[in-house]
Amino acid sequence: MPSMPAASTNPLRSSDMPASQQAHDLRMTLWELLTQHALRPGERLPSERQLMEYLNTTRITLREALSQLEAEGRIYRESRRGWFLSPPRLRYDLLAGLPFHEMVESQRRHATTELLEASETAASTTVARRLGMAEGTPVYRIVRARSIDGRRVLYVEHHLRVDCFPDILAFDLAACSLTELYRREYAIRVSRVSFELGSTVLGHQAAAALYAAPGSPVQRITRINHDQNGRMVDCDDEYWRHDAIELTLSAAPQS
Amino acid sequence: MPSMPAASTNPLRSSDMPASQQAHDLRMTLWELLTQHALRPGERLPSERQLMEYLNTTRITLREALSQLEAEGRIYRESRRGWFLSPPRLRYDLLAGLPFHEMVESQRRHATTELLEASETAASTTVARRLGMAEGTPVYRIVRARSIDGRRVLYVEHHLRVDCFPDILAFDLAACSLTELYRREYAIRVSRVSFELGSTVLGHQAAAALYAAPGSPVQRITRINHDQNGRMVDCDDEYWRHDAIELTLSAAPQS
DNA sequence: CATGCAAACTGAACTAGACCAAAAAACCAT
DNA sequence: ATGGTTTTTTGGTCTAGTTCAGTTTGCATG
Q: Where does the record place the HTH gntR-type domain (chains A, B) (predicted)?
């Protein structure tokens, strides 16, 4: 970053300012510094050591402020790679039933998908419960990482009933939407979805896939798909970088 | 906490352990320490200085580990008051249309509500857009804090159309559900809801109401209620302590 | 017995460094 | 140019403290 102004005196330690506000102010000052320099979404921030100099503070304090901005969703980090300005959130309508690529493209962004794993395994307790089967029953396991404008934002683990989708692993699972495949190749329509949403932190595998630090906060979306006969045919666990999406949903309440 | 074992040697600095794993292990060790001593939900953890002694580490490192457990939702903190073990999450079915108190009681927990503000103000840009009115139009503003088992978990700001609910401020807004009031006193049924979900951090007012540190991560739920004629009658912004809820939802997708 | 005040405790925030490993950049040889 | 190697930069993690202000608590007073 060129011509960042050097802080001659520390603007954060003026004596007429209550200490309890300094963290807040450092965050604000940092944010102003970033917006002033008109970083574009996805662009890298100056290194922590540089920022620390500019703002005349220490690394730990600086990192606290950065973490704040991260929690707000204004910036994000890639593990050992630095801090970046967050692009605008993708609006994700839970009930629209749009495949990922179409949803992203409809918002004039670019979507890509990578297949990380495609195998047949035994259903874990959790998966078995969700799909209404006995623990250990064979299931297809499909793990993918999805990007928007080149940024990894989503890590998904799918688990499908083998009896519903025989030999589905033979298809190109990176290019095509699963629900699309279900309909076209297996005549299975998703006619009901159940969601479970919560925020947690990334495990090791998911963190690696998203180039994120293990322990980064994420939005978890667990989804169970039912076919036209009400049978549970597959479930998936989606882990979204929390700053990458804004969930929407519109429906009639049951009562 | 009685009889916490003193750490004679540091279990976290054994030489055969890669440094990149120590953070993870400290978190695990800390968590084991807590579960071993069978803290009950809502119970206070030992002070940071004590834990730092037990685990033979420094305040900063310890706080990093505590923050991790906080992000996972296992523990939470109240500002300047200490760390506490998180109670189980409340299951919140977005489309069930259950009033807060009923939802909580149905899960065998105890709910309370405090009224923080009830006034008539001018609609902000955001509120006006949501309710389909001009900026500056008068609206009722109702701010409440809601607790489960004595713990403040939810801060809500409601904005209602004045023309839909004349003189609603005269009712006891802490005791009664708003949707209940709508139906009983104004013959307005909520027949459609739109949600917007995202994670952010607490502002000052919300943080104070939840006894949380400003900047704590929260789950935001914005809700717009439509009446039987499709008219938008009110909206609210809910800020939930992120470890306090698990959102669920089941519906037919639109496609 | 309740009330109010002062002391002790505790979390919040900060200082000033250090070391390591992964990533990025520079460099060199083919 | 190109591919591989070395150097530098940088984030991740840690040590060892300090200061300050809000909470809690216990003691003394009315």
A: 20-88
The fold for domain A90-248 equals Chorismate lyase (3.40.1410)
Contacts of B60 in chain A (CB under 8 A): 60
Q: Find the residue closest to D14 using CA and C1' atoms.
A: B61
Decide whether A19-85 matches A90-248 in CATH topology: no
| Contact partners, residue A21, CB within 8 Å, separation at least 6 | none
Cβ within 8 Å of A, B 25-44:
27
Those of residues 186-225 in A touching chain B at CB distance below 8 A are 190-201, 214-215, 217, 219
Nucleotide nearest to A215 (CA to C1'): D12
Domain boundaries, chain B: 19-85, 90-248
The third-level CATH classification (topology) of the domain covering B19-85 is: Arc Repressor Mutant, subunit A (1.10.10)
Q: What is the pLDDT of residues B142-199, one digit of tens each?
A: 999 999 999 999 999 999 999 999 999 999 999 889 999 999 999 999 999 999 999 9
